[in-house]
Amino acid sequence: MRDKVSPYLCRIILFLILQGIFSLGCSTAKPVTESVRFAIIGNTSPASPFSGFTKYLPEVLAEIENRKPQIIIHTGDALYGGSAADGILESDLKRQLNIFFPMLKSLNTAVYTIPGEKDYYNGSIALYSGLTGKKTGYSFNYGSIHFICLSSSDSGKSFIDDEQLEWLKNDLNEFRDSNAIFVFAHHQLFPDKKKVKVQEKDEDLHKLFLEYRVKAVFSGSEKDYSTKLKDSVRYINAGCSFTTDKKDNKKGYRFYIINFINNEISIDPVR
Fold first, then answer.
1. What CATH topology corresponds to 32-270?
2. CA-CA distances (angstroms) from residue 38 to 29, 160, 261?
C-alpha cells in the first residue's frame, strides 16, 4: 500500500512547491495603475493684495470635489504677491497664505500646488514654500502613475534652473518604468501666443520628455485652453480665469477634469 501511495504524495508535494514558487514570482511583479482622474485649477489670486480671496473659490473647490477626482493640482498664482517697493507688506502675503492653504487642507482630496510669479514676494518664494514644505521641484505617485511638479520661469533664459534640471533628470530616470508620466508647471514650455524665441535648453528639455515617454506637460499661466502635440508629447495649457464678477467668470474656464484611461487623455474644461 505504501508503495502505491508514495508516488501520488510526491506529485502533490511537487505541485504545491511549484505553485508556491509561481505565486512568489507573481507577488514581486509591480501592480499597474491604468487610470487616474485629476483636476487642474489655477490663477485664483485675489483682485488686490489687501483684500480677501474671491468669494467664489470655496464654491468652485466644492464643485471640483463633487466630481470626485483622486488628485487636485493648482498650477500657480494663488496669491497676489509683489514687493515692498509696490507697497505690499510681508503681512499682506502671510494673510493670504493663511486663507488659501487652510482652505485646501479642509478638502478631502489630495491637493498639490505649484508657484506662479504672483506667489513670490520680493523675488523670493520662501514665504510660499514655508507653508507647502515642498522644494521648487518635486514629484509624487498615484500607484504606478508618476506626477512631476516644476517651478518654471518666464525669464526667457531657461524654463527651469540647472539645479531643478539635474533633479528632474534623476527623477525621470528613477521612475522611468511608470505606467504614465505627467509634468506640471505654471508657464508654457512652448508658448502659444507670445513671440518668444525657444531656447536651446527648452528644446533639450523636450528631448528629455521624449526619452522618458512623458505623456503630457500641463501649464496654467495663460488664461485659456490650448493643446498641441509635439512629437509624442502633448503640451496642454489648462488656464483658469477668476474675477470678482460671476458673469465674467462664465467667459473663461474655472477648472479642468482630466481622465487618463486606456492610455488615453480626455480633458473636460468647466466654465
1. Purple Acid Phosphatase; chain A, domain 2 (3.60.21)
2. 26, 24, 12
Q: Measuring CA to CA, which residue among 249, 258, 247, 204 is closest to residue 71?
A: 258
- Written as one string, the DSSP assignment of 65-117 is HHT--SEEEE-S--S--B-GGGT--HHHHHHHHHHHHHHHHTSSSEEEE---G
Q: What digits encode the pLDDT tens for the residues 130-174?
A: 988 888 899 999 999 999 999 997 666 779 989 999 999 999 999
Q: What residues form DSSP beta bridges with 95? A: none
- Contact status, residue 247 vs residue 229, Cβ threshold 8 Å: no
- β-pair partners for 237: 219, 226
Largest CA distance in the chain: 99
- CA-based nearest residue to 156, from 186, 188, 218, 198: 198
Residue 227, all three cell numbers: 493643446
pTM of the model: 0.85
Phi, psi of 81 (to 5 degrees): -90, -155
Cα 5–chain centre separation = 63
Least confident stretch, 10-14, 178-182, 223-227: 10-14
Residue 50 Cα to chain centre, angstroms: 29
pLDDT band at 26 (very low <50, low <70, confident <90, very high): very low
Domain ranges of the chain: 1-30, 32-270
Contact between 83 and 121 under an 8 Å Cβ cutoff? The reply is yes
CA distance 90 to 36: 38
